[in-house]
Amino acid sequence: MKIMKRNQVIILVIAIMLVTAGYLNFIETNNNQETVQTNGNDVQTMGDATFVSSQTLVQNTLKKNTNTFENETTNQTSAQDNEETEEAEYFTSSKLQRETMYSQMIESYQKMLDSTTISAEQKAIAQNEITKINDTKNAIMITENLIKTKGFNEVLILVNDTSINVIISKEELKQEEIAQIQNIVSREMKAEIGNIHISNTK
Q1: CA–CA dist 38, 89 (Å, integer)
Q2: For 7-16, 40-49, 59-68, 153-162, which range has the lowest pLDDT when averaged over its residues?
Q3: What pairs with residue 46 in β-bridges?
Q4: What is the pTM of this model?
Q5: Residues in contact with 88: Cβ distance below 8 Å, sequence separation at least 6, in sequence order
């Protein structure tokens, strides 16, 4: 009798499980028939309501954040490129102006040498000035190149009598870097440390 009752209970439990599974399947099938899926199951509509899957919301949010990040990065990169371009143009333009000034000075002294109305003493002075200008140009070129070898991208040296201005393309100059630049300028251009003025463009 006990065996019969136990078998009956097992059969009853199995029957209940089958009925429950059938009911759940019926509800799921009914819901699927009422649901219209569009755009690859991303957007679902039921009656007048529209449902967007959580996956779509996540994808849209990620896409929006990615686009915002890309735009900000592009703007920052563009601004940085513009700044670097302007700085490069500054150094190029300043060096061209410096070269033009020295060329004009040499040309003026050369005219004095070619003149027949200028005394020998004046011609000697003119020749001496031409030599000084050429020496200064060579010293500037060598000094700028030596400073560049220390890791600086752009260097500009402007000489005004005994005052020497050194402009470095760097956001911040450390004290040891300033001392290094001063030593190079002092050695190559035979200048006193007190007459060397170092600045940066950024």
Answers
A1: 56
A2: 40-49
A3: 49
A4: 0.59
A5: 154
- Per DSSP, 154 falls in state -
pLDDT digits (tens, 9 = 90+) for 46-95: 444 444 455 565 566 556 656 665 666 555 556 556 767 888 899 999 99
> Residue for token digits 């700044």?
83
E strand or H helix that includes residue 76: helix 54-114
- Tell me the CATH number for domain 68-202: 1.10.287.4300
Tokens representing residue 101 in the block: 């000034």
Per the document, the length of the chain is 202
Q: What whole-number distance in Å separates Cα of residue 171 and Cα of residue 101?
A: 29
The Cα–Cα gap between 77 and 80 comes to 5
Q: Give the pair of three-digit tokens for residue 16.
A: 């209940």
Instruction: Report helix, strand or coil for 132.
Output: helix
